[in-house]
Amino acid sequence: MADVAKTSASGPGGSFAAFLALEAEERKKVLARTHALYGEAAATAQIFLDAYEGCGGFATGEYLWKYPREEDPDFKLRKEQARYHNYAKSLVNLYVRHVMHQKIDRRSDDQALKDFWEDVDGAKTSITDFMTRAAHLALAMGYEGILADKTTDAPTGPAKADERARPILVLYHPQHVVDWRHKRDELVAIKLKEEISSDDILAKTEAADDCQYLIWSKTEGWIRVTEEGELVTDDGSQGFDNPGLDLVPFTMLRPEASAANPFLGQSLLGNANVFRALFNRCSEEDNVLRDSSWSMLTVSVDKEGDVAEVKTQVGTEVGTTRAIIAKGQIEWKGPDQAVPKSIRDAIQFLVQEIYRMAHVTYQRDSRDAESAEALRIKHSELNEMLVGLANAMQQVEEQIAKFYYAWTTTSADAAESAFKAANVSIEYPNEFFIKDLLEELQVWAEAIALDLGLTFTQRIKVKAAKTLDPEMDEETLKKVTKEIEAQPAAVPLNAPGADAAALRDRAAGRLQKFTTEGAADNPIVQPAGRQAAAGAGDTIAAA
């Protein structure tokens, strides 16, 4: 192993070389070390991922909490019968769809970068589709890792121009980002856990969860080793290399960064145990209903009565189509519905809290007396979350473009020059929620329809122009104002021969055109009580 260390990318004395020089047991211990924040973050992220996918413990029932004194056979049956309602996927998909349905403006003078955007993973996945997938995962789990790797294709010649390998993007879940190091807010090293894959479906493996590690260092490049610390060389790579990037080509998509540790992020879904609690309440409701929802025929037998004789009289088959004659008072005892109702109320509360944590108005809220100020704050929070997601995705895409040039040039300086020369421009939408604006325009349109005079109508139109385009420069505003003042006076609704209905229809049509163009397929900006997601199966207005 010492001979291998001498040929490593880090050279004699480097950390890669020092690691490979360790005894096998020591290498295994070093690899098993994780970041102090990894354990809790990974466990929570797994619950969120299962909640979004509707799998894992929500599919197997492992996320159920056992009752006190519940027998194992009963608990096993309850796990098998548990049901899961996927509100997490509805909310996450709604956010991503709302950002991605708007135009994302990507521009560059470099055709090679444009070609890369058409296929970023070697599987014909466009940058738009790749970022959409990353956004789903990042919103659900709080963050998603993206590594800019490179294929292992051999070059066709000795020159850089003969290089056949190309950059590719790979996603890493929080559960696989096990350790990292920062220096002055710069990522200088990271350890990633990878599943072992083989083209041979019958290949012998030691365990179902076999894995390997990919370690990146800014100064030493990368190394890939097994759990035992042995170099991985059977995948076409040599197990280590120093491409001289002078960076770690790894970035995190974090829609909302963690306040405690900016490297991590916060899930849109709030608290993982809320989803587990909802899962448990639904199971409890089913259990209570199965055990206590059927009426029972009861016969009161006095002290001198013969219970066995009464049992014989009543029999074992009791139905509504036969008459029963027996000693004592006979009646049907119905179950107490207070417990199921309490559980349903708890379920309703948890669903409502899930939507509120995601800054989305729940349909029940629209039936409550919620103040206008409370709604305004909620709408503002929602818009901020959407803007935050769009900004985070834009920053990550810009970083990916820099990684692309780091891989396709010969030095860090050359990569920076190539990035600048390419004139890369990536712009995501930065305004989403326009409900207040639409309501204000509705008021203005109604004021114009009232025909309050030419001067007042022109003032309203100028104000509307300023509101719709707040970044309009002074020269353009003067031009727009002159054009509005040059418009002929509107025909009064009560003028002889005026078709009042037609005038109102035209005014309503203009407003509807703006509403449709500004908020088409946009359930978030619909008035309270009419909110519904555009996608089949996803709903923002839960019953």
Give your account of this protein's structure.
The protein is of the alpha+beta class. Among the domains are: 295-334, no CATH class; 435-525, no CATH class. It is 46% helix and 12% strand. A hairpin with a 3-residue loop joins strand 6 (211-217) and strand 7 (221-226). The two termini are 64 Å apart.
Question: Care to give the gist of this entry?
Answer:
The protein is of the alpha+beta class and 543 residues long. It contains 19 helices and twelve strands.
> Mean pLDDT score, rounded?
77
Sheet with most strands: 5 strands, antiparallel
Count all strands and give the number. Answer: 12
Number of H- or I-type helical stretches: 19
- Classification by helices and strands: alpha+beta
**End-to-end CA span:** 64 Å
Determine the strand fraction and express it as a percent band.
Answer: 5-15%
The coarse overall form would be flat
Give the uncertain stretches in residue-range form. 1-13, 365-373, 517-543
Level of helix content? 40-55%
Strand order across the biggest sheet?
4-5-6-7-8
C-alpha Rg (nearest Å): 32 Å
